[in-house]
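Hi there,

I know you've been waiting on this one. I reran it after we fixed the sequence typo, so this is the corrected version. Both the input and the resulting structure follow.
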Amino acid sequence: MREPTFKMIETNGVRLRTVVEGDGPLVILLHGWPQCWYLWRHQIAPLAAAGYRVAVPDQRGFGGSSKPGGINDYNIRHMAADVAGLARALGYERFNLVGHDWGCIIAWNTALLHEDSCKSVMGLSVPFWRVGPETIDPPGQDDRFWYIRHFQTPGVIEAELERDPRSSLLKIYYGLSGDAPKSTWLGQLAHPRASGLLDVLPMPSTLPSWLSEEDLAYYVEQYRTGGFRGPCNLYRNLPTMSAITPELEGKRFTQPAAFVAGAADDVLLYDPDWRSWFPQAFDDLRFIELLDGAGHWLQVEKPAETTAQILRFLHEVEPVSARTPESPSAA
């Protein structure tokens, strides 16, 4: 992979290190936890070659971007405003949005909070639902380990993960992937509440085929340098997410949308009935696709298939071959 082109984008009071490639309608790609822009490394060039301008930020708290210190600095309103401001800073009034994991949560909420500028939204791996305090304690599991509860006390999970970032990241990446035995991630609920995250996840004997030593080293360097505090602060805002966005209760997505996930992703098992209620939030849900053989990390486990699904959606909602590509009003 050739060296990416980074821009430091000023938006919403922070600076976001952002890969910017291509020309045409703007597509913003949002990573989740514990990731950075590098998760999208296989998608950037194909999307740019297809006629889109691709912007891939390290979200606030991650990688080379600003890392505010307060928990409230990572609430969903700030995270969504970062995205809308990024588009404006690149000279675009409207943008297409694709998010994964925590980036998917941010993408769903950005589409609702900034519906006049977010003209389409595609989610990867995490269906949309209104989030509140119930995410902290799964029903009937008060004495069991649950990672979101474990993340709530500042400093605890950071100290655990930062002792050995390589082992920490490898266990998380493997544990949520399609390479791990079924329900490896949800197997944490079989462990006592006093466990740590790294206690409940297995260490693979070899690297997964989709994660090279070079890839892992890049991630490790990002977290050795930037730490886990900002990224973990996202979880500390889950209990109040719905409360600070009361206007979104019952609000429907009016723009075109799509959803893609790995068929072997444990996150879909948080509510096994998700397909019965998820589509009801959308006026224009173009498709739902599950990719066989993939777990949580679609972009790297199934890079070609994931890119194809993103382009399928973009070609429906922003068919660049049928129009003059949109150019930014100011770069």
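Quick highlight: The longest helix spans residues 303-317.

Best,
R. S.
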